[in-house]
Design goal:
501 residues, alpha/beta, Aldehyde Dehydrogenase, Chain A, domain 1, Aldehyde Dehydrogenase, Chain A, domain 2, seven-stranded mixed β-sheet, six-stranded mixed β-sheet, 16 helices, 38% helix, binds succinic acid
Length: 501
């Protein structure tokens, strides 16, 4: 087993929650290769833990265990599945302090945001505990005499979750809660940056009473991620894959899953537009944008990337936004005064820097920020940045940023705003601020995205269907019926009554 740095160990109330081995079939194990890899704190660029580097050769054991467990778990009553999820939920809440600390070290996000993520994540455990008991079939009047037609819902089987590093607890629980409520078992592959929080969840799932094999976690490196993920996607016993991440990787996984016609949920890239009209409440729009854009240093698929502001309020809105952005305090996530942490991966810095340089080259004006911060430990810090006078020629107009940078694009008319907002291959979320009720409705209908915020910024919620259209993927991950259905099959029965055919 690998060591744990005193930097985090001293901050944990229950050090037994810190797990740094893979979890398969109820056992804490090492990779077959015996290799381990380092986990780095993005706020200091220092190693604070290590994990087994599971590889494709480790996949079959985990899938077999999950399948063995499924044969029993699928017979658990909905009430028992709901009770297990409720217990899991209670244990996560009870241990939120330690989970939040682990999250800060893994992702870099400020402690208050880590607590926010746990609150968000447990909205899924709570919600899907309820959904477990709302899984229902239907009956249909038959056209033919003597016939009875009906459907039942049954769990799919072993499911794989491929989870990103930006909200590692919320994204594991959004997928696992739905799967476990449905009666499926799961093999989760967290990102190389954030395996520890997923392993703590496995520990708490065990404490909640989940039988061995129901929930398994395979940590791995960036180098082994493609082959391990491919092994899960191609495994004939895995019946469903749920992935949150980039559109590029989503397309690759989709091709792997095609070999067994596996059911897929893909929550992919964003590049989301945020449209502010002259008649908007500018304070409301600005507060929503600040929370949406700078949450986790802009590293969310649903974050606003491109901000379109109508010319009548452009200068006023830019000034308001700049003033609020300058109040952000950048620092290590464990520092209580920090309101924005580092980006989680160093390549994130390069991407933001490249977009800033490109914008400047195309006539963009840096209103605030624009630079890496090198004076803060050795962490991956970038100034919260606003670019004004942005145009569609700039990289930021077509590339998702995934960092603390936003660009302001002036526009004249509603028609122009819709055209610009929709001018992307992606369609995850779009946002619109106006006090004109007719326009609200038109924008809702005309913006091409799976989720539309109307005078609302971040709209993610367990009760609200989450998912995109176009190249942002397909399938829904929360909300009533739709999300749990992703883990169920609908079986149709036709009964013919004797003497009536
Ligand atoms: C994401 O960025 O991938 C998810 C964010 C959310 O659920 O709000």
């Amino acid at each position: 087993m690998g060591e744990i740095s005193p930097a985090i160990d001293s901050k944990l109330k229950h050090p037994e929650l810190f797990r740094n081995q893979a979890y398969v079939n109820g056992k804490w194990i090492e990779a077959k290769s015996g290799k381990r890899f380092d986990i780095i704190d993005p706020g200091t660029n220092e190693k604070f833990a290590s994990c087994p580097d599971m590889a494709a050769e480790d996949v079959d054991d985990a899938v077999k265990a999950a399948h063995e467990a499924f044969l029993a778990y699928r017979t658990f009553t909905p009430r028992t599945r709901a009770d297990l999820l409720a217990k899991f939920d209670a244990l996560i809440r009870e241990h939120k302090d330690d989970l939040a600390t682990i999250l800060v070290f893994e992702t870099g996000k400020p402690l208050a945001e880590a607590y926010g993520e746990i609150e968000y994540a447990t909205s899924f455990t709570r919600w899907f505990a309820g959904e477990a008991e709302r899984i229902q079939g239907t009956t249909f009047p038959a056209a033919m005499p003597g016939r009875r037609i009906f459907t039942i819902k049954q769990p799919l089987g072993v499911c794989a979750a491929l989870v990103p590093w930006n909200f590692p607890i919320a994204m594991v629980l959004r997928k696992a809660s739905a799967a476990l409520a449905a009666g499926c078992t799961m093999v989760a592959k967290p990102s190389p940056e954030t395996p520890l929080s997923a392993l703590t969840l496995a520990y708490l799932a065990e404490k909640a009473g989940y039988p061995k094999g129901v929930f398994n976690v395979l940590p791995t490196t960036l180098a082994n991620t493609p082959s391990l993920s491919e092994a899960l996607c191609r495994h004939p016993t895995v019946k469903k894959v749920s992935f949150t991440g980039s559109t590029r990787v989503g397309k690759i996984l989709s091709a792997h899953c095609a070999s067994t016609l596996k059911k897929l949920t893909l929550e992919l890239g964003g590049n989301c537009p945020f449209v502010v009209f002259d008649d908007a409440n500018l304070d409301q729009a600005c507060d929503a944008l600040m929370a949406l854009k700078f949450r986790h240093a802009g590293q969310a698929c649903v974050t606003a990337n491109r901000v379109y502001v109508q010319k009548g309020v452009y200068d006023e809105f830019a000034a308001l936004l700049a003033a609020k952005t300058q109040e952000i305090r950048v620092g290590h996530g464990m520092d209580k005064s920090t309101t924005m942490g580092p980006v989680t991966v160093p390549t994130g810095l390069d991407k933001v820097a490249a977009q800033v340089e490109d914008a400047k080259k195309h006539g963009g004006v840096v209103v605030t920020g624009g630079n890496r911060i090198t004076s803060l430990n050795n962490g991956y810090f970038f100034e919260p940045t606003i670019i004004a006078n942005a145009t569609q020629k700039m990289k930021i107009a077509s590339e998702e940023t995934f960092g603390p940078l936003l660009a302001l694009f002036p526009f004249d008319t509603e028609e122009e705003a819709v055209k610009l907002a929709n001018d992307t291959s992606m369609g995850l979320a779009s946002y619109c601020f106006t006090k004109n009720v007719d326009r609200i409705w038109r924008m809702f209908e005309n913006l091409e995205a799976g989720m539309i915020g109307l005078n609302s910024g971040n709209s993610s919620a367990a009760e609200s269907p989450f998912g995109g259209i176009k190249e942002s993927g397909f399938g829904k991950e929360s909300g009533k019926d739709v999300a749990i259905n992703e883990y169920l099959i609908t079986k149709t029965g036709t009964l013919t009554l004797e003497g009536q055919y």
